Amino acid sequence: MKILVTGGAGCIGSDLAQRLLLQGHSVTVVDDLSSGKLEHIAPLLPNPRFRFIEADLVDPGTTQSAMPGIDFVHHLAANPDVKYSPGDPTDKDLRQNILVTYNVLEAMRLAGVKPLAFSSTSAVYGIAERLPIPETDPMLPISLYGATKMGCEGLISAFQNLFGMRCWIFRFANIVGPKVRKRGRTVISDFIHRLQQDSGKLLILGNGKQAKSYLTAAECVDAMLFAIERAAGDLHVFNLGCDDSLTVDRIAELVIEAMGLPGVKLEYTGTEGGWPGDVPRFKLDVTRINRLGWKAKMTSEQAVNTAIEALVPLCRP
Amino acid sequence: MKILVTGGAGCIGSDLAQRLLLQGHSVTVVDDLSSGKLEHIAPLLPNPRFRFIEADLVDPGTTQSAMPGIDFVHHLAANPDVKYSPGDPTDKDLRQNILVTYNVLEAMRLAGVKPLAFSSTSAVYGIAERLPIPETDPMLPISLYGATKMGCEGLISAFQNLFGMRCWIFRFANIVGPKVRKRGRTVISDFIHRLQQDSGKLLILGNGKQAKSYLTAAECVDAMLFAIERAAGDLHVFNLGCDDSLTVDRIAELVIEAMGLPGVKLEYTGTEGGWPGDVPRFKLDVTRINRLGWKAKMTSEQAVNTAIEALVPLCRP
């Protein structure tokens, strides 16, 4: 198959592109390198079945020109940073998530491309009334990131129905791995950087009690490919994650241990969430993907530890 | 209060604007008259507390210039036509629903305006797994209209949380009334027009078995104002409708009866839904608004009949 991976120079997209090449497919990656990195796809560039287009999909013409001949679209391009800080523009997610996703859908419609896998997020749920959260629970997002991913899900659902597409929507847990994106720190890279600057103390955003589900990028790619192969209907929504969660305090301990730093003083901003729009506690109900036959091999702690082990040496100044 | 009603020249918005003026408020209506009509607000124009701005809210500057001094926003402006016909642009709802709603939210944020009532739709649910549909059930819209209203709900939920707004989201049943919009026929006006052209037969889009909930615009305005007064929390979602539904076949009978036409031959396009993206059967669970103390006075049949009685003389060629 000829497969398009948008956002394919990102931490997850580049893993996916590599896996698809190994399966024998031809892969086109479109990425504007705003958060993805050329180094993530550098090993793939010599492969004659690999093509890289550096472009911003917010331009409809660019998106449309990438589509002819494509058999399957993995749409991962997005603003990857859930955080909103006062002073940030409020239309970044609108543009990079909703407008780009509309452009991808419209380009698929025009070119007659039917199957789409979309990377959504557990942030669509907001503060859930119950944990773990099944896919059928209400969506009341508290971040612009979650809000715009929810808008993308709506567009995909409508395009699927109106134009006979086949779509898989994956709501990711927090995805961690050995790659570092260009901008927007994750909790692990944030802790490593802070400890490199001052190994005596660590400022934790929030009260440390935040507890979330983690999954490695490798397992995330596994789960997506598994679901696409097994769930062959017209429209599917899957939570992707493991079935437990991990506190921020525990992640701090794991990073400190991996960096071999004794006596680090923990300090807290003290809020319930780490930043405006942060969902302090979530755990996904992954029964649906489990029933299909896929289950995460790692717990949240194992996933985070794998990422820490890879990132600590990488982040050395 | 100084109240902004976007889409205030529409069938529902103009009723709402009139009611707010009667309550003693000052009302600013912004409408681009693309589906609203000047005649709907003509009776309000002489009122010194009424102001009309003819403008398209898709322009951020226009939206922002209407906001200073406003105490409350009723955001009804939208593409009102749920239908998608092959050949239509697919970005109309994206622009008129999502981009306009983002512009309204951003203008409110910039001007420090906190309370917002938003007109959403039962079309956000798509083909529901169970009827009646409570507010907490999944959203898998099958129309671009429903999809983009779902996107608006996401944005409102996030803005509410990030910027301390107070928001009421109302998911409307099919709203009917004595006013006719500029473009996009409803089932009632469609039947009347077809019978005026040929009183011997009536073509029904679909198989006639479609069954939906109806509410008059007057009762819809009642319900919104009631909920805003009584449900004073930060974020509310309400289904607005009555607790029954009415078939398209029965509406055809009622229109034929009201027009005094014997022996009309009914013809059907025969599909389950009337058009691509049409949800053939829905009934809203209105327990939440009922528990707050509001209940529709009219059944779906009474609501539709009220509209038919008003529209038949109006639509005479």
Q: How is this fold's topology laid out?
A:
Two copies of one chain form a homodimer.
Chain A: E1 2-6, H1 11-22, E2 26-31, H2 38-41, E3 50-54, H3 60-65, E4 72-75, H4 92-111, E5 115-121, H5 144-163, E6 166-172, E7 174-176, H6 187-197, E8 201-204, E9 211-212, E10 214-216, H7 217-230, E11 235-240, E12 246-247, H8 248-259, E13 265-268, H9 287-292, H10 300-315
Parallel strand pairs in A: 1-2, 1-4, 2-3, 4-5, 5-6, 6-11, 7-10, 8-13
Antiparallel strand pairs in A: 9-12
Helix pairs in contact in A: 1-7, 4-5, 6-8, 6-10, 8-10
Structural features, described:
The structure is a homodimer of 317-residue chains. Chain A has helices spanning 11-22, 38-41, 60-65, 92-111, 144-163, 187-197, 217-230, 248-259, 287-292, 300-315, and strands at residues 2-6, 26-31, 50-54, 72-75, 115-121, 166-172, 174-176, 201-204, 211-212, 214-216, 235-240, 246-247, 265-268. In chain A, α1 (11-22) packs across α7 (217-230) and α4 (92-111) runs parallel beside α5 (144-163). The longest helix of chain A is centred in the first third of the chain and has 20 residues, at 92-111. Chain A is built from ten helices and 13 strands. Chain A starts with a strand and ends with a helix. Chain A is globular, with a radius of gyration of 19 Å. The model of chain A has no long low-confidence stretch (mean pLDDT 96). A seven-stranded parallel sheet of chain A has the order 3-2-1-4-5-6-11, sandwiched between helices. Chain A has a two-stranded parallel sheet with strand order 7-10. The first copy, chain A, is α/β, with parallel strands linked by helices and 317 residues long. The first copy, chain A, is 38% helix and 18% strand. Chain A has two domains: 2-175 and 213-240, 3-Layer(aba) Sandwich (Rossmann fold); 185-212 and 246-281 and 298-315, Alpha-Beta Complex (UDP-galactose 4-epimerase, domain 1), CATH 3.90.25. Chain A binds chain B through residues 84, 90-91, 94, 98-99, 102, 105-106, 109, 124, 126, 135-144, 146-155, 157-159, 161-162, 235, 237, 276-277, and chain B through 84, 90-91, 94, 98-99, 102, 105-106, 109, 124, 126, 135-144, 146-155, 157-159, 161-162, 235, 237, 276-277.
